[in-house]
Amino acid sequence: MIQDKRIVLTLDAGGTNFRFSAIRNGKIIANPVRLPAQANTLDEMLDKIVNGFQALIDQLNETPAAISFAFPGPADYEKGIIGDLENLPLFKGGVALGPFLQNHFKLPILINNDGDLFTLGEAIGGILPKINSELEKAGNPKRYRNLFGLTFGTGFGAGIVSKGKLFTGDNSAQAEVNRMRNHLIPETSVEDSVSIRAIKRVYVNEAKISIEQSPNPFEIYKIGLGQAAGNKKAALKAFESLGKAAANAAADAITLIDGIVVIGGGLSGAANLFMPYLCAEMNRTFTILSGDKLDRMEVKAYNLNDENEKAVFLKADLKQIPIPRSNKTIAYDNTKKIGVAISVLDTSEAIALGAYAFALQKLDAWSL
Q1: Closest by alpha carbon to 207, among 182, 185, 228, 238?
Q2: Strand, helix or coil at 326?
Q3: pTM of this prediction?
Q4: Residue 317 CA: distances (Å) to CA of 118, 163, 182, 302, 336
Q5: 311-353 per-position pLDDT tens digit
Q6: What CATH number has the domain spanning 127-344?
Q7: What would the CATH number be for the domain defined by 8-113+358-367?
């Protein structure tokens, strides 16, 4: 975990609630502030954001070093301009939120996507250090430095972290996994099969009921477990579909990234229903034109929620091979493994930690 005395104010701006925190040394140090995200006018929305941060400042004995937070896109995050948002229509046409807050608070303002900051938080203080610690305890010298984060919720989001640094694109459009093709319904985007609306859509189609009759995703999950009344077959199919669709997008990304996959967001709690399908789909084979089989990825994905698969993942398969023209050998493990895991932090907590780490990295870079 980061040890740094600077204080950073953070915000996780969801479509329903705004959650404000103050963080020092990687830990929340003031009473978090939660405000409803709804507002009738842009001025009311701006006042809400200002008041949330001010409520934190009023609890502190010193001036924060920066304000850093997650806000939905599309946006020009580097300039702090928020674009047209489906869930927050008051920003239609573009709003210079970052410059506005900088003028008001006289502090550095950093904004990024929630999927990106979630991934950075899990890389800094979540799944990545946990996995590397478990590898060390297992006597395995392998260490992972790359993390691909996925969020399953209202939409399908993602982020990429390599060696502790967030990957940012030239147009603030990095890791937009939701724009990948949906291999289950090829003329649509993958988000149509990896989202809350997707779980409900598949359930009602399989159960042959109207969308108005659909249970919410948590109830569908309980139906799938046999813990609530409903169409169990339809519930299981809904999470199977989500797992397979997400897997194809994840496999495409991992082919370029080659790292651990971490999953967060509201639907991640149903991991026991979708993870087996997700990992199986990532590990499927292609049939090439010669008729031979080719692994979908050069690496093998292990479901780290499954204790048996996790044990295989953690175990080193080292052998000593000779160095030509010498009497020396070198340890070699020719297995190529990645793990797929559910986040160890609450998603909002991971986003806040990622926003905090991102601010410190930027402040340090600016001071050079």
Answers
A1: 238
A2: coil
A3: 0.94
A4: 32, 24, 36, 15, 10
A5: 999 999 999 999 999 999 999 988 999 999 999 999 999 999 9
A6: 3.30.420.40
A7: 3.30.420.40
